[in-house]
Amino acid sequence: MAKNPRILICLALALGLGSSPVIAQQENNALLLAEGKYFSVYADGQADAYSIISKLNFDYLALADSLTKSPSEDPKQILAKTIDGLYLEVSDIIDIHMYGFKGSIRVLSDRQSLSDLIKQAFDRDFKERSLYFFEKNTIFISLADLTLGMLGHEIAHAIISNFFVVPPPPKVQEILCGYVEYSLNKIHGS
C-alpha cells in the first residue's frame, strides 16, 4: 500500500468516496473567473484573474497559434487563453490530445483553505497544494502556492484520467505528471 499521503487521498477520492455535499456547496460559492475552451476557472473571494495570471507567468502566444491577443482583451480573456495554451502544451508533452475535453479549475486562497475543504468533504487530512478530483473533473489548487509546473501537473492528471478507459495506477500517473511538471519548469524556468 502506498504511504505517500497525496497518492492515498487521490486513490481514496478516485475509488468512490463519491461526490460530497461540501464540494457541491463550495462550487455554488465560487465565482466564475474565466471560461476557456478546455477549462472553466472558479475562485474564492481572494483570487482574481490578475493574481492567477501573474503567478503563472506564462505566455500563451508562444504555444498556441490559434490564439490571438488583442489590445482590448480583459484579464478574464487572457486567463482563459493562458489556461487553454497550457492545456495544449501539457497535451503535447504527454502526447495525448483530447480536443473535446472540458473541466474546471477551482482556485482557493491558500493551502489551508484546500486542506479545510478536503477535511470537511471527506474527513481526511490533506496537506498538499493541489489536487485533481476525477469525480467532478475539477482541479483544486492553492493560489498562494500556484506555479505553472504545479498547474500543468494537475492538468496532466485530468487528461490522463479522462483519456484512458481504465486510468493508470496512481504511481504511474504521478510519474507522468511529474514529467510534465519537470518539462514545464525546464522550458519556462518556473
Radius of gyration: 16 Å
Oligomeric description of these chains = single chain
The averaged pLDDT comes out at 84
- In terms of DSSP E residues, the strand content is 5-15%
Sheet of most strands: 5 strands, mixed
| Helix count from the secondary structure assignment | 7
CATH architecture group name: 3-Layer(aba) Sandwich
- Do you know the CATH topology? Glutaredoxin
Distance between the termini: 33 Å
Strand order of the largest sheet: 1-2-3-5-4
Write down the CATH class.
Alpha Beta
| Parts with pLDDT < 50 across at least 5 consecutive residues | 11-17
Determine the fraction of residues in helical runs and give it as a percent range. Answer: 40-55%
- How many DSSP E strands? 5
Give the domain tally: 1
Please, could you describe this protein's structure?
With 190 residues, this protein is α/β, with parallel strands linked by helices. The protein has one domain (20-188): 3-Layer(aba) Sandwich (Glutaredoxin). Helices cover 49% and strands 13% of the residues. The chain has helices at 5-14, 21-29, 49-56, 75-94, 111-122, 148-163, 170-188; strands at residues 31-35, 39-43, 103-108, 130-133, 138-142. A 5-stranded mixed sheet has the order 1-2-3-5-4, sandwiched between helices. Strand 1 (31-35) and strand 2 form a beta hairpin. The model is unreliable at 11-17 (pLDDT under 50).
